[in-house]
Predict the structure.
Amino acid sequence: MAELDHVGTGPRAWRESLLDLLRPRSRQGVLVTVVLIGAGCGLVAVAFHGAIELLRALFVGTALRQTSPLARGALLVALPAAVGALLAWLVPFLAPRAGGGLALDRKAYAGDPTRLLDPRTLVGAFGANSLSLGAGVPLGPAGPTVVLTSGFAAFAARWLHLPSRFVRGMVPVGTAAGIAAIFNAPITGVVFALEEIMGAASRGVLGGSLLAAVAAAVVERTFLGGDRLLPATPAHWGDLRELLGFAVLGVLCGAAAGWLPRFVPILGRGLEALLARTGRHALVARGALAGAVAGLLGVVAPETLGIGYPAVSEWLTGGGSGPQAAIAFAAKLAGVSLALAAPLVGGVFAPSLFLGASLGAAAGHLGQHLFPMAHIEPGAWALVGMGAFFAGFLRTPIASVLIIFEVTGDYGLVLPQMLTVVLASIVARRVSRETLVEQALTPAERRPGGRRDPLATLRVADVMTTDLRAP
């Protein structure tokens, strides 16, 4: 009988011994735990990236390889339509929070991470987003990635029986690690977690976020090589008059980025009214329609299918043409608006980079045509536009500047980039006070625990020394 008891409790005893070994007992133990969790987040992000690329090669790659224009166009339209309808039918029943993106991350930080980011949601998010982006839906992987990495980090902390405040702190830690793994940009990951998720400075969480981000970036470099995600031709500016053009670009990016949060809900209500006769199948019909239109737009502008980073890289190196970039911007804007209104599954991080780069490239080529003696570089304008649109859309100005420099490795446009980011942020806030992420949150979720950033009301006079004397 004693032997049976020993056998029955063996696995449990082994698990408890493992947990006892991994559970941190000191500050050094906490740091090691955070590094291991960050590395795990990196593995999750790499696996998600691989799944998207595999399905994209299977779906979009097969469609683009068709020699017949009719067959190619039919597949490009049918694939996202079928996937959009399938996910609209399955996700609400199997994993209703799987399409939450950045809004779900912020809800988890404000509430119970292990309840909102439960294994069912994480598995659903992995499968649904991989399928959606692989089929050519014009959204991005960053939002789903931070959901996966934040959920993994919170689950690991809960599995180790760590305190609830530690588990909650794993949400921004996982966010930073996810961004670092996607873009090979650990500093941007930490700042983005501060601006988008936490909203207030927290020394302990910031330190953990930095460690996890570095660990995740190391994992990404190990498996994917660490190459620049968006290589750019070194760009410079030397004419002060060009700053005026950059300022106009910043205003345009801010207006377009601010227009999206106002237009998407209106479009969503329009789709709901249009397809009301389909009854309980309305959501499936919306997914199919949005997917079909996205595919149709992809026939006109194939670079808009899926994430679109190859096209962004082309614009950043000065390639493409003004009309091509303008058509891509219009097609992507329409596709993203419809995909978010339906809603289809995917993130908004990558589309904002695509839209900014295409708008900047179109403006740069136009300026080059109108002012041939001004030596305007379209690649520089694409780079500046990318940061400006990102800032206007997500309202994370510091991360917007940092991500451009970390992702491209180009620091030659610091002043124009900061100018356009500030202008885009101001204009976007005037056009729409809330982002699409903020629209999905309650007031309590926007400021978890009612906390305010202690630096928000700090003045220079409060910290400066005024009693200096000459030696």
Residues 1-8 have pLDDT under 50 and may be disordered. Residues 192 and 399 are 5 Å apart (CA to CA). Residues 240-274 form the longest helix (35 residues).
